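Consider the following input, taken from an annotated entry for Phage portal protein (Novosphingobium aureum).
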Amino acid sequence: MGLIDRMASFMGYERRDDASPLDPSWQAVASNVGYPSVMSARMAENLSAVLACVNAISTALAYVPALVYRREGDNRTESLSHPVSRLARGQLATRMTWPDVIEHWIASALLTGNGLIEIVRSGNGQLSNLIFVPWQYVTVQELSSGRLAYDVGDGKGSMRRLLEGEVLHLRDRTDDGLLGRSRLSRSADTVQGVELANRHAREFLRNGASPSGLIEVPGTLTADQRDTLRSQFNGRHGGAGNAGKTLVLDGGMTFKPAQISPEDAELLETRQFGVIEICRLYGVPPPIIQAYENNTFTNAAQAGLWFATFCLSPWARKIEAEFARSLFPVGSSYELELDLSGFLRGDPATRWNAHKIAIDTGVLDPEEVRQVEGWNPRATEVQTNG
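Applying the prediction step yields:
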């Protein structure tokens, strides 16, 4: 450790090595015995349940309407001219669209505990662009003022510094109030167990998807004869590619397959339970990631509502709060809202029955119901058709 790093460590600063793919929040995922010493976010996504949960949350939030409202007293109106609203409706000044940037941002927070977007402003200080910053290229330091400095590398040796107010920093739950910590690292034993079950399944299939057996021979074999027989047998009949080949034995030899072990018989159930464990970490109902083992049509519909209410809504609130903190001035009348109403509408019969009750009780009028459904006012529609 260099002098600067020792001083930073003594002063309580956190520093990550840009040359290393390991994020500190992943150190707890590694095991000391028989397990890789490094597990990165990319390696974790090799687990299909992790990838599916991250995709389900990040994609859903990236593609819902992002609306900017201006509050005036007790009323609020949508502000289509606000820079955030314009960026959300059109393509950003990069190769990424708004959904791309938001999806990458949220996925980074789900996998590493932190997601970062650079705020780009024009010469007059107005918001002009949002750029996603991969977290593995970021080194964070706490300044003497208490603010965070984000040193961003480009992977080629160049560094530039961004300060709070110049970034949107999305955090998962934090231990120190500064940086988020990945929930996968908080449940390292669970992640390790799922990976070990998958590894066992791979080896089981690689060895022919069947247990080994016994070859009985009359008399006694020498050590060299046993090694030769074992080598020839494995070469011709071992592995999934050799499954089903005809076995020919001579010299009075007989083959007796061993019975499948209870551990191998329960392998499928173990892997299915691993999917449930990962879903539990992310708060995603299993049917959302196509885990239908215990699914019915009734609980599938409820799973969507549960997903929106208890998983998407908390993340949406965190995103709205981060935009308010970093992009809207203190005391501003503007606010961002991620419209999750599409997830909360329920089935058509239930939704329209709720609309009828709202109209009958005077809570809404027909024009407001049309607005909720995303339709134009009837007068405008009639005029356009005419």
